[in-house]
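ingest -> validate -> predict -> emit
validate: passed (alphabet ok, no gaps, 354 aa)
predict: started
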Amino acid sequence: MLAPGTSKESLGRASYRKAPCHMDEFLRANRTWVASFSSGEPLLAIPLEVWDEPALRPKFLTSTWETEHQFSQLCSQARAQGVWNGQCVRSRLFDNAQTEVFESEGTVDGQSRVIRSGPNLVLKRKFDEEQTRLRGVAGWLMTNPVYQRDRDDLRAAYEAAAVGDCYPFPFLRQEVESMSIRRLQEGPRKRFAEHALGFMSRWGLTGLTTWDLPDPERLLLPNPYPTNYGVPDTLHGVHIYVPVHYPLQKNDPLLEDIRRAQERAAVRNALPPEFAGIRHHGQLATIFLIVYVGQVLKSRFPDALPRGFVKWMESCQSRFSGTSLERVGALHKEIKNLGRKKYDPDDVYPLTEW
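emit:
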């Protein structure tokens, strides 16, 4: 049963909304362009921020530039990252301090204006910091070979069991759990549901927006945001209970106790030790944006990358992530190092052996 004031939409199904009519019309009118992408994969838009910079319009996209730009505009208007199977793809990791959540209408000098100060501004700052931390988690996952191996195993099981009609994307843990308990008999689908729940519980995910976009669990605290934004749910992590009367102190030793509990939880789940209380989340949040844009741009050239692509890609990544070209180059080296990281197989092993 959903909590009062919430709905299935608020819990995540709104991440994929039926594409607006004008998007359907656009896709029908540009069938040849759509067909140039890998079949069965989400079609993600090049971020509009890239198109705002004329210097980032490469010659090798000249023939499709107008189409690409229009698609990016349509996705931006729908607050979506792309489309997949007739649905808008929308990841919470790209949410900003949304106007409908944090801004309110007020009257100033006799005119109706949006108020962006006071308590709402405080909430926006908290939201932005939480987003940076969650993007950092996603950046860690998207560059970690252990997570990628588990995800690839899950995808292979998903395709082998042919459960797309039963578990459409976005892949939500709450819905998988509900289906597996109430509606599925023993068989391939039931076994897949157990596999999927183990995967999401192990890695602390509320679901997957696409196979490449994880949705990490959020901090479970009294929700400062409006109830229609969503209710965090968790089966993973450190659980604490703080009575109303308990006197918390500045620099409370409780924080160190929580960190140690996170480390013990990582050991119990055979996870890489650095997954516990991920450090350097700001850098990893930038890595997340860099990796995401790289995936989007590479999808335009499924056969071979054109000459000059890498330089263009890094310029786009710099623009989208708000970091310098030099920093982007350094982070590319870091991404390669993260992808090559080795672990003791006795301590960190696949979900299938967990």
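The chain has a mean pLDDT of 80.
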